[in-house]
Amino acid sequence: PVLRLLEAQLQEQRREHEEEMEALKNQMDLMQEELEKQQQAFLQSLQLSPEVQVELGLQQEITRLTNENLDLKELLEKLEKNEKKLMKQLKICMKKIQDFEASQTMVPAERRLHEQNMQVAVQRKEKDFQGMLEYYKEDEPLLIRNLIT
């Protein structure tokens, strides 16, 4: 069984290698044809007058620049699409932050009274102990929000 498995793997590798060799041979043939075309075009351009050579050179440069512009336009469209996606994500995050802040501001009436009492106590303590503040751990987000505003 192990020998058969190894034999099957070897045959699979041989088949993959042959397919890869065939693909590389086809690619080499295409490159050879392209090279021959370029050589013929070069030889023909040497036989042409200088004005025609310049014109052909300009045409080739225009073609190259056109292709480059198309590639850049495609890249720009991709980046704009990505920007829109990121802006949507940013809006969603901002909405979540606003919802969270809104949920933090909606507190029961008795907690509001307690906070007002705390603020009075804080003011008195600030006079007695400069820079010291006493607060409940659950009031920390509200305290931070008040400090910021």
Question: What can be said about this structure in brief?
Answer:
The chain has 149 residues and is mainly alpha-helical. The chain has helices at 2-47, 50-105, 109-128, 140-148. Residues 3-96 form a coiled coil.
Describe this structure in words.
- The protein has 149 residues and is an all-alpha fold.
- It contains four helices and no strands.
- The protein has helices spanning 2-47, 50-105, 109-128, 140-148.
- The radius of gyration is 38 Å and the shape is flat.
CA gyration radius, whole angstroms: 38 Å
Beta-strand segment tally: 0
Helix run count: 4
Largest sheet: none
- Coarse morphology: flat
Query: How much beta, percentage-wise?
Result: under 5%
Query: What is the average per-residue confidence, as pLDDT, rounded to a whole number?
Result: 83
What percent of residues adopt helix (DSSP H or I)? over 70%
- H/E series, N to C? HHHH
Would you tell me the structural class of the helices and strands?
mainly alpha
**Residue runs with pLDDT of under 50 for 5 or more positions:** 121-128
Query: How far apart, in Å, are the first and last alpha carbons?
Result: 77 Å
Protein name: MYO5B protein
Keywords: Coiled coil
Coiled coil: 3-96
